Amino acid sequence: MKKKIPGAIIKTAFPTIFQKPATVGYPFEPLKIDDDYRGELTYDAEACIGCSMCMRDCPANAIEIINIGTKEDKKFKAIFHLDHCIYCGQCVDSCPKDALVMSNNIELASLDRNNLKVERE
Amino acid sequence: MSKNLVIPIGPQHPSLKEPACFTITLEGEKVIEADIGIGYNHRGIEKSCESRNYYQALYIIERVCGICSHSHSTCYLSGVEKLAGVEIPRRAAFIRTIFGELERLHSHLLWLGVAGHEIGFDTLFMYTWRDRELVLDILAMLCGNRVNYGINTLGGVRRDLEPQHIDDIRRMCAKIEERNNYYVNLALSDATLAARLSGVGMLSKEDALKYGAVGPVLRASGVKSDTRRNDPYLIYPEIPFDVITYDSCDVFGRVVVRVLEINESIKIIRYCLDNMPDGDIIAKMPRKIPAGEVVSRYEAPRGEDVHFIKANGTDIPERVKVRAPSEANWHSMAHMLKGDYLADTPIIIAAIDPCYSCTDRAITLNNAAGSKRTDWEAIRKHGIEFYRNKGVDVSRILLPEKINY
Questions:
Q1: Residue A78's domain is classified under what CATH number?
Q2: Closest Cα of chain A to B205: distance in Å?
Q3: Within an 8 Å CB–CB cutoff, is residue A101 touching chain B?
Q4: A11 part of contact set with chain B, CB < 8 Å
Q5: pLDDT tens digits, B112-129
Q6: ipTM
Q7: What kind of fold does domain B45-354 have according to CATH?
Q8: Interface touch B158/A57, C-beta < 8 Å
Q9: Mean pLDDT, chain B, as a whole number?
């Protein structure tokens, strides 16, 4: 066992006073978000085939795919419930046509709850 | 004649930021009885797994705990994969191991900071949490989330490690190792830390085994027990690493075990990076899992995690039971509190690295044999009677028309 001295951290703590902060002053300064970060979903209506695999696997029931066209000429739209979404990205994995992709947009907060239900066509 | 004083600590903010109520009976300054009341964080996670398919249940299980989310999901998946008879690709096992150890790194650094904070050593808290950010940045880069990584999926992992990621992990490991060596030195050389933590929260080897302690708490009592060594999973059978033990049996020992384990984790990550094979990262899994029961074990940062899964041949699990490591340590903690000073209570509670939300899923059946099943109408009737006796009439409050329970 080494000799015990009180306040052994002072040697490291004192020079730290003169270093720049380890934190970032977000939101006043930009925050670096990785490209692969799991943020807002983007939807490609052209690629969607309406198989609803994403709805089936979503653990939070945060996604709805609706046919807004006719029975013969199908056209799909997606409704995302951003307040339900847990940003796990399982819908992206389940989608067989890569119609869903996660972007790195994390600034989704809103003061109005209705703004958290977004429709994408 | 002196009367014993009973102090309720919690449920709000009992040393940590989660709710639990510790009823402490004092004789003077000394704790003579500690009663632990948990259950404030019950979220019905196990029940919600029973109404979701295996993919959905994975994300629910991952959210059992924010810190050891990978432990829970890996433990659950190894059970499901065993039931389905699927072997995950070797590369996926390496990636799961790397994530498991990265998680251990940030969990132990987090704990070290919390322990520092509980004893008023906030400088240590600031430094360890700053260093923990290095690990969280790596995790965010690899899987897209800082916590609840979502890297696991049925049959393997969801994202591969790229060559540039490997360089970043190596750089991070070197930095953390340098910083951690400093913490090891600090733990062993700082007189204040040793004076505050030595002899606090004593748990002898016999008591640790008797109360079923797990993880660093057990190892700090001198018992060489680690699921990674006792019942190896993933690629642990082939990884050379030491099981760290310390025989001081107190909170100081738990600090030493954890800081030394950080170095072991770095060693394991380096081994995985050096020996990682090429190949697939995901194997094909059936959506319907054959009927059967399985118990899987995993060494989470806090100790041994146990999952029980019962499948019934559909794509929805029939039963998922989680025994989180904190749950196993409660009993030893109640024992540790006895005989110590009231002022030591926060650090003794914090020393097991408790996770209340991990634990709170148990139900207690009082007199289960004589209990009867009550329907919704009877409960409402009982409630109306109960309040009427207190002078309040709630019978006019109308219920929503359709209720499906």
A1: 3.30.70.3270
A2: 22
A3: no
A4: no
A5: 999 888 888 888 898 899
A6: 0.87
A7: Cytochrome-c3 Hydrogenase; chain B (1.10.645)
A8: no
A9: 87
